[in-house]
Amino acid sequence: MNNLTMALNLLRQRLATTTAARCYAVKPVAVGAAGKKKKLGKLGPIMEKKIIPVETDANKLVNYVCGSNYMKTGEDVKLKPDAEYPDWLWTLNTERIVPLDELDPDTKQYWRRLRKMALRRNNQLSKLKKF
């Protein structure tokens, strides 16, 4: 009986020391690639900015669409001569946005632009309302 009580007392002491020492949550530690600790925000570790290399080779900039290959293997899309592209591509408006006054009211583009402008106006007016 004496050995049994000693064993129970020893077990109680071990349980008391392990639970008392670990009754709180451990803060998570984020370790970066270099072994440095990252700062923790409200939603977890803060991501560091990745530096993307900029292409400086003039020959590649003229002959390829740089950045079009997002795979690890392969190469960027090679530019073709202008004759291989469709004619409508060269008629696209890249200069400025055409004002509403210059658009034809019989087109879908006119009515979409008008609706978009009305939605923006209503949103601005709703911000000014006092509740």
UniProtKB/TrEMBL annotation:
Q: GO CC terms for this protein?
A: mitochondrial large ribosomal subunit
Where it sits in the cell: the answer is: Mitochondrion
Q: Name one GO molecular function term.
A: structural constituent of ribosome
Q: Which UniProt keywords apply?
A: Mitochondrion, Ribonucleoprotein, Ribosomal protein, Transit peptide
**Which InterPro entries does the record cross-reference, listed alphabetically?**
Ribosomal_mL54 (IPR013870)
Which family does the similarity line name? Belongs to the mitochondrion-specific ribosomal protein mL54 family.
- What protein does this entry describe? Large ribosomal subunit protein mL54
Q: Which gene encodes it?
A: Dgri\GH20528
